[in-house]
Amino acid sequence: MKKSNESLGSQITIGILSLLAVLMLAIIIFTKTSMSPYSQARREAISLARANSSMKEAKVFDIVNTDQTVYSVRGKTESNEDVAVLITAGSKDKDPLDIRTIKLAEGFDPDKLPDASKAKYIRLGLYQDKEVWELRDSLNNYRLYDFKTGEEV
Question: What pTM was computed for the model?
Answer without folding.
Answer: 0.75
